[in-house]
Amino acid sequence: MDNNISVVVNEEKKKGNLEQIVALDENVYMPVFGKRVPLVVDHGKGVYLYGTDGKKYMDMIGGIAVNTLGHSNGKLCKAISSQAKKVIHCCNYYYNEPQTMLAKKLVERSFADKVFFANSGAEANEGAIKLARGYWYKKGTPKPKIITATMSFHGRTMATIAATGQEKFREPFGPVTPGFDYEPYNDINALKNAIDAQTGAIMLELIQGESGVHPADFEYIQNVRKLCTENKILMIIDEVQTGVGRTGTFFAYEQYGIQPDIVTLAKGLSGGVPVGAVLATNIVATGFGPGDHGSTFGGNPLACAAGLAVLEEIESKNLLTNATNISAFLFKKLSAVAKKTKKIADVRGKGLLIGIELDCGSASETKMKLFEKGYLVSAIGSNVIRIAPPLILTKLQAMKFVSALQDVLEGKE
Ligand SMILES: Cc1ncc(COP(=O)(O)O)c(C=O)c1O
């Protein structure tokens, strides 16, 4: 085949691949994602994803705060492949070293004494909810009520939709798990009024990521801690999205000067290999005894070896400092774009979890225009662009994204 013809054939093949996959997906995949962005991901490297059409995209959403180290990180790939060659999975009838070592590292880095591994954020939160209820039950004073915040998001399983303070996630799937109450975020008086003898835990995100990147006020969280201590209530912090360096510290709670009783992690912990974790103090961990909880896959050697590699890379590459510095740079540059274009109403968040609230135009339209320019972001609700890029993002890459956003907002091609 001559060269020109082979180029044309390849282009057609690539185009065909997108069309074929989209058509096939419509037939065989449940329609829970609606219409997806027209990109069939082929591979990734660093902060970039490449489509089967050969196009390169800066991944400013990082698998929704999952790809802590970016794509195809050498250390992470090596850890996964060497672990896979040794043993991918063995059930929890036996010990496995990566599981114990990852638990040890998380304990060393946190308020916690004990860890349980699951496979996702929702599963970690299920574990936290069960642990809190089990704790009070075993003390002989069952207190099943858990207060969460309105507009929170804690997952999509039956207990976590019940914990999620947004009716739209619960309504079609009732009856939902009872025992949850929702109070306005950042409103300490509402919490005070909602507490009763049945209240065993208060469960909060420190940044409400899924509902538009809304950070909790420092004072509010300090007061929640006090309220919990005074009323013998467990404080559960859902760090599924904010954990593992996302906000510039390993845990976001470190920035609030508090010690929670239970913390959940997932997304970024193993850099893309499914994982979840429940962290608790020794006292609270008494809520689980033998047979009370478990998971076939949870804490398997592969996921935990990946987690260990992520933690080592965060340390050796100073990624917490990088996240903090790039965050400050992004906030400065995005504020300048807001001033110049008058099309951004607010820029908020912490570290590399940032919400850009648009003043005009729809977030999904802006997302698609950025996609056409080679940038991947998420649109939340009607007017917020969320970014959660890998913690390895450089200033130059951050600047390129800001310029692309400015061009889109100014209507430049
Ligand atoms: C704060 C929070 N909790 C829980 C979850 C659910 O995690 P997963 O999708 O891994 O079940 C999410 C997902 O976006 C989240 O942001």
Structural class, please? alpha/beta
Major beta sheet summary: 7 strands, mixed
CATH hierarchy, class of the largest domain: Alpha Beta
Question: What is the general shape?
Answer: globular
Radius of gyration: 22 Å
**How many domains make up the 3D coordinates?**
2
Q: DSSP helix count? A: 14
* Helical content (DSSP H or I, runs of 4+): 40-55%
CATH topology of the largest domain: Aspartate Aminotransferase, domain 2
Under the CATH scheme, the architecture of the largest domain is 3-Layer(aba) Sandwich
Ligands present: pyridoxal-5'-phosphate
Number of strands: 17
- Average pLDDT over all residues: 96
- End-to-end gap: 36 Å
Describe the structure concisely for a colleague:
With 413 residues, this protein is of the alpha/beta class. It has helices spanning 3-28, 62-65, 74-86, 97-109, 121-138, 158-163, 167-170, 188-194, 218-230, 282-285, 301-316, 319-341, 363-372, 395-409, and strands at 41-45, 48-51, 56-59, 114-118, 145-149, 180-183, 199-205, 207-208, 214-215, 234-238, 262-265, 276-280, 344-350, 353-358, 375-376, 378-380, 384-387. The protein folds into two domains: 37-66 and 318-409, Aspartate Aminotransferase, domain 1 (Alpha-Beta Complex); 74-316, Type I PLP-dependent aspartate aminotransferase-like (Major domain) (Aspartate Aminotransferase, domain 2, 3-Layer(aba) Sandwich).
